[in-house]
Amino acid sequence: MGDVVRVTHATVRAVNGLTARWAAASEGGTVFSAAGVWPLLAFLVDGAGGPARTELADAVGLPADEAAGAARELLGAMRAMRGLDSALGLWTKRTLELRERWEAGLPAEAHGVLTGNVEADKAALDAWAVKRTGGLIEEMPVRLDDDTAMVVASALALRTEWLRRFRDWPTTPEAGPWSDRTHLGLHRRSTLLDRVGVADTPAGHVTELKVLGDNAIDVHLLLGEVGMTAGEVLGAGVDILERRYAVVPGSRLPYGEVGPGLRVVKQRNTRPVPPTLDVETVAFDMSTRHDLLELHRVFGLTTAMDASRGHFPGISDFPLAIGSARQSTMARFGELGFRAAAVTAVAMFAGGAPPPVRWVTTTIRATYDRPFGFLALHRHSRLVLAAGWVTDPEPYREDEEDY
């Protein structure tokens, strides 16, 4: 039985769409969570007015008057997902009076106070980030000063253990951008051929490998053709989730080089064995800080950044403008499982001799030995919780345990 998670397809599509747009605007190795930003934008659009309301609604991907309800639905759904902890926080100066209708739409336990002591307030916000992510994020990504009137933040932390673990060993690719280093490689063999497949997208072919967790949180590894950008590969991954592109599963692939990093071969064996899927990838441990205002058009914050006037009459009579919007994220992929966390904050101012070979079987070899993307998602709703592009895998250290 799956989790009892109630979230409409329109909301999932809106969040995943923001994931794709953010990926298209990203460069280099990165990890990010649109699911951490989207509820904040949705609550902000509910209180926005004028052009800021229009821009935020476009970024959210839903009509402005539906956004807050969808955000509440999403937060409730994420709280019901096993392996995922999520929270929303709101802090305001004592002198800032909020509209009752807007404040009532937030979780009752969310509201805290900014004392005006910047050092003390920062310590309190940092402690919230640590608590809500189990220590995976140690600092609230927000800039506070004497003019900060309000901070609204979200936190999420996800964890899953693989249904079938990897084994680790040193690996050095023969060619490509990683050929000059030895990485902590991960290997796994199974008979579940359809865990891998190939999609033909307008930007090129993409190989998708599904790594299933024990709590319905999975990670899809995405390898595109050489020359495809991170945005194209991750965007294709989102489109595959939305079933815009068909995936040819491993069991239906022909022999030969059938996709990026994917090869189907006849394998000689000393005993009768079923067809197998051999996966080779790399461990990674990465963290990123994002200044969302650098991508203000992606997040619909262009007008709301104008501090010459207020843009959120539905939140308060006090004229509010966006002063800071940042996210801190991390992701760790290893032999046993996956961890990821994100805190988003918006501040508003004023191997012997071989035996004889007798049998032949089919082996699918999936090799991730150059930069690739990943999507961490809830299996049943297909909601993307975190996404990233791996350019710098974990190095192999001599003291690593050999299996």
From TrEMBL:
Q: Which domain of life is it from?
A: Bacteria
Family from the record: Belongs to the serpin family.
**PANTHER family from the xrefs?**
GH10112P-RELATED, SERINE PROTEASE INHIBITOR, SERPIN
An example of a GO molecular function for this protein is: serine-type endopeptidase inhibitor activity
SMART domains this protein is in? Answer: SERPIN (SM00093)
Q: Where are the transmembrane segments?
A: none
Report the source organism. Answer: Streptomyces sp. NBC_00180
InterPro entries xrefs: Serpin_dom, Serpin_fam, Serpin_sf, Serpin_sf_1, Serpin_sf_2
What cellular-component terms does GO give this entry? extracellular space
Serpin domain boundaries: 15-393
Matches recorded under SUPFAM superfamilies: Serpins (SSF56574)
**Name of the molecule in the record:** Proteinase inhibitor I4 serpin
